[in-house]
Amino acid sequence: MERIKSGGGATSFATAMYIQKHRKVIDWSNKITNQMKLDRLKGEIDNINIIINDVKNL
Protein backbone atom coordinates (compact mmCIF):
# COMPACT_ATOMS: atom_id res chain seq x y z
CA MET A 1 0.00 0.00 0.00
CA GLU A 2 1.03 3.53 -0.66
CA ARG A 3 1.13 6.37 1.86
CA ILE A 4 0.15 9.82 0.72
CA LYS A 5 1.27 13.09 2.29
CA SER A 6 -1.06 13.27 5.28
CA GLY A 7 -0.95 13.16 9.04
CA GLY A 8 -0.98 9.37 8.97
CA GLY A 9 -3.46 7.15 10.77
CA ALA A 10 -6.97 6.81 9.38
CA THR A 11 -6.45 9.36 6.61
CA SER A 12 -3.50 7.60 5.00
CA PHE A 13 -5.18 4.20 5.40
CA ALA A 14 -8.36 5.47 3.72
CA THR A 15 -6.26 7.12 1.00
CA ALA A 16 -4.36 3.90 0.34
CA MET A 17 -7.63 1.93 0.13
CA TYR A 18 -9.09 4.53 -2.25
CA ILE A 19 -5.99 4.44 -4.49
CA GLN A 20 -6.14 0.64 -4.60
CA LYS A 21 -9.77 0.74 -5.69
CA HIS A 22 -9.88 3.81 -7.96
CA ARG A 23 -6.22 4.41 -8.96
CA LYS A 24 -6.61 8.10 -8.07
CA VAL A 25 -5.28 10.24 -5.23
CA ILE A 26 -7.75 11.93 -2.90
CA ASP A 27 -7.09 15.61 -2.28
CA TRP A 28 -7.66 15.49 1.48
CA SER A 29 -6.72 19.15 1.99
CA ASN A 30 -9.62 20.22 -0.22
CA LYS A 31 -12.04 17.87 1.52
CA ILE A 32 -10.94 19.08 4.97
CA THR A 33 -11.14 22.75 3.91
CA ASN A 34 -14.63 22.22 2.48
CA GLN A 35 -15.73 20.47 5.68
CA MET A 36 -14.46 23.42 7.74
CA LYS A 37 -16.39 25.84 5.50
CA LEU A 38 -19.53 23.70 5.87
CA ASP A 39 -19.18 23.63 9.66
CA ARG A 40 -18.75 27.41 9.74
CA LEU A 41 -21.83 27.88 7.53
CA LYS A 42 -23.88 25.57 9.76
CA GLY A 43 -22.83 27.65 12.75
CA GLU A 44 -23.86 30.87 10.98
CA ILE A 45 -27.25 29.36 10.04
CA ASP A 46 -27.79 28.29 13.66
CA ASN A 47 -27.03 31.86 14.81
CA ILE A 48 -29.48 33.30 12.27
CA ASN A 49 -32.19 30.85 13.40
CA ILE A 50 -31.63 31.88 17.04
CA ILE A 51 -32.01 35.56 16.07
CA ILE A 52 -35.19 34.80 14.05
CA ASN A 53 -36.68 32.94 17.03
CA ASP A 54 -35.77 35.82 19.36
CA VAL A 55 -37.47 38.33 17.02
CA LYS A 56 -40.57 36.10 16.76
CA ASN A 57 -40.84 36.03 20.54
CA LEU A 58 -40.71 39.83 20.96
Name the descriptors:
mainly alpha, single chain, 58 residues
What's the helical proportion of residues? Answer: over 70%
Number of domains: 1
Strand content: under 5%
Average of per-residue pLDDT values:
78
Would you identify the regions where 5 or more consecutive residues have pLDDT less than 50?
Answer: none
Using the alpha-carbon principal axes, give the shape: rod-shaped
Our count of helices gives: 2
Written description of the protein model:
This protein has helices at 10-22, 28-56. The protein has 58 residues and is an all-alpha fold. The protein has one domain (10-56). It is rod-shaped, with a radius of gyration of 19 Å.
Question: Can you describe this structure in just a few lines?
Answer:
The protein is mostly helical and 58 residues long.
Blueprint of the fold:
Elements: H1 10-22, H2 28-56
